Amino acid sequence: MERFTGALSLTLLLMGVTAVAQIQPSQPLSWSTQVRVPSSRQQGTVAAEATLSRAELASILVHVLSLEPAMGEPASVTHAVRDVPPSHWAYHEIQTVLAAGIMKGDHRGRFFPDRLVTRAEAFSILAQVHSNVPIPEAWAMQVLSFYSDAAEIPPWARQPMATALQKGFVNVQTNRRVAPLTPMTHGDLAFALSRYLQRQQAGLRFPAVLRPLWQRSSAKISSEV
Description:
With about 220 residues, this protein is α+β, with helices and mostly antiparallel strands. The protein is about 35% helix and about 10% strand.
């Protein structure tokens, strides 16, 4: 696996604070620190095995991908979300991912901010950020056929999950299991984002609409390597 100069220091801005995950050639991910999470949880730390809510995922993606509007840019259109009032700690991040089309609510206008994110959902979201053009269904099924629990992947997630697997975003478990219905953890997401950002740093395919955002994120990471 290619890496940045030396070990990659990936800065994950989890709700506005910093965690560092180190990438080593013999060890794809080492969660080297715990992370303070001033969010809906009580002030404290969250370990790599801690699960993620949809609100937390939205916040992490906004900060890591630098999705906040640049200074001087017009604010995005506000989306009416029944279960995320303006007083919610992640209101602005949720509005941002909705405006960018990265995450969606249901047909009743609910976002379910406290619901745990499954691995299928999180990896699918990241795959769609990487490329909004899904791979052909036949190709996806061929990719998934190599994994022992592929039948557990919900139909809506099969193509994006195949993309995530093909791009190396998924930390595959023992017996070639992808555990699609298992809750996503902070460690899972750190692994996925480190692989994702490595691909962008290498100049591989990246959605044109997000390229300026990646350049800001890349500069932030490079300054800390």
